[in-house]
């Protein structure tokens, strides 16, 4: 069997910067922060008073009845998938060759907590019969699969903040391995709630810059103090190359490799040597059949935590050596906040747009670049990328020591 | 307290509109919950719990399977209340 190549033919997103891909991308290039003070009463009772909520509420994009049967994470998945599917031209195809892989880091956590409140206040009889389908982490994938009648398999990898990237890698493999011709893939997260935020704050993982929320997510800045929780989701339609050509689909770019490793180091802290990240980078390039010279852009994981940003930059430098000098590194979480299981997905959407427009998005909020960061960070304004064949990387890491690297190539 | 059939129907219409998003005006006695109103087994649980709360009646699980149409539910509630 000949090698089955995998291309991107559709994009969808709902992010703190916009209710679709186009609006999100425009705001991203403009260096806009999606981080705001939360208006809910509970926000003032916990250590962190801000987050990056989606720019457009799902209630403005869906029917009321759909909303009440779906967890917020599932709403994001449907909003982004509908856009992506339409963008791909809603292919007429054998549904036994259509798959869905959509991840979430935490699943329907707000449903679980809301229903627990109902249980305690009103008793078990008023617990919603929709609770289980709403809280299960595979709910976003399952609902999208149901809507599209996908029958090649519906999957949900869970690896904390690497989940979104892992989902896209899983979809990539489904097509390469001839299980499917088209896979709707991505990640979502909807965890802006007092409990998850208090829990992340207890780990000292969140920024507490309450007096200046829009400046709180500052990857690579010397005075970064933690990540900002974001919400939303991103979806990519992956398709086998000949299948896409045969139906005359618009092809954005190709996915050519992935690298997956685990640290075996600590449940939450990154390995300061970044050995696992280095191995993932090397495996991904080898899988892609590319050399370090081919890489011109990295949409970094860079969450704005003191330890993580430097460990990642060091790993990139170690894995790419002098070739890291020509990699334009963008930390888009400086604008979107950290979408946990949705992060690798929206960042993959951004990489596809980066390759399409040949523009690497900026990193905002760097007042003083941390001197320990020895990679070339794109600051404040977008940067033009070279013409010709170019390739870009998405790396995502998750609590538990999960490392995922995806390789995208212009076509 | 005795309940009038018309009042129960009006209340049930509001419940079904809330749960299933079907406009109250299109909900009539002969409508089938599953086939006409998109009320699946999970949503039927919501309808039943909401109806119990609203009309102050008990609708046992074994009775729910017999409530095929809106009229079945209205008649059950009227009888249970009287």
From TrEMBL, chain A:
<dbReference type="GO" id="GO:0006633">
    <property type="term" value="P:fatty acid biosynthetic process"/>
</dbReference>
<dbReference type="InterPro" id="IPR017568">
    <property type="entry name" value="3-oxoacyl-ACP_synth-2"/>
</dbReference>
<dbReference type="Pfam" id="PF02801">
    <property type="entry name" value="Ketoacyl-synt_C"/>
</dbReference>
<keyword id="KW-0276">Fatty acid metabolism</keyword>
<dbReference type="InterPro" id="IPR020841">
    <property type="entry name" value="PKS_Beta-ketoAc_synthase_dom"/>
</dbReference>
<comment type="similarity">
    <text>Belongs to the thiolase-like superfamily. Beta-ketoacyl-ACP synthases family.</text>
</comment>
<dbReference type="Pfam" id="PF00109">
    <property type="entry name" value="ketoacyl-synt"/>
</dbReference>
<dbReference type="GO" id="GO:0005829">
    <property type="term" value="C:cytosol"/>
</dbReference>
<keyword id="KW-0012">Acyltransferase</keyword>
<protein>
    <submittedName>
        <fullName>Unannotated protein</fullName>
    </submittedName>
</protein>
<dbReference type="InterPro" id="IPR016039">
    <property type="entry name" value="Thiolase-like"/>
</dbReference>
<keyword id="KW-0444">Lipid biosynthesis</keyword>
<dbReference type="GO" id="GO:0004315">
    <property type="term" value="F:3-oxoacyl-[acyl-carrier-protein] synthase activity"/>
</dbReference>
<dbReference type="InterPro" id="IPR014030">
    <property type="entry name" value="Ketoacyl_synth_N"/>
</dbReference>
<keyword id="KW-0275">Fatty acid biosynthesis</keyword>
<dbReference type="InterPro" id="IPR000794">
    <property type="entry name" value="Beta-ketoacyl_synthase"/>
</dbReference>
<keyword id="KW-0443">Lipid metabolism</keyword>
<dbReference type="InterPro" id="IPR014031">
    <property type="entry name" value="Ketoacyl_synth_C"/>
</dbReference>
<feature type="domain" description="Ketosynthase family 3 (KS3)">
    <location>
        <begin position="3"/>
        <end position="410"/>
    </location>
</feature>
<keyword id="KW-0808">Transferase</keyword>
Automatic annotation (TrEMBL), chain B:
<dbReference type="InterPro" id="IPR009081">
    <property type="entry name" value="PP-bd_ACP"/>
</dbReference>
<dbReference type="GO" id="GO:0000036">
    <property type="term" value="F:acyl carrier activity"/>
</dbReference>
<dbReference type="GO" id="GO:0016020">
    <property type="term" value="C:membrane"/>
</dbReference>
<keyword id="KW-0596">Phosphopantetheine</keyword>
<dbReference type="InterPro" id="IPR003231">
    <property type="entry name" value="ACP"/>
</dbReference>
<keyword id="KW-0597">Phosphoprotein</keyword>
<dbReference type="GO" id="GO:0009245">
    <property type="term" value="P:lipid A biosynthetic process"/>
</dbReference>
<dbReference type="InterPro" id="IPR036736">
    <property type="entry name" value="ACP-like_sf"/>
</dbReference>
<dbReference type="GO" id="GO:0005829">
    <property type="term" value="C:cytosol"/>
</dbReference>
<protein>
    <submittedName>
        <fullName>Unannotated protein</fullName>
    </submittedName>
</protein>
<dbReference type="Pfam" id="PF00550">
    <property type="entry name" value="PP-binding"/>
</dbReference>
<dbReference type="GO" id="GO:0000035">
    <property type="term" value="F:acyl binding"/>
</dbReference>
<feature type="domain" description="Carrier">
    <location>
        <begin position="6"/>
        <end position="81"/>
    </location>
</feature>
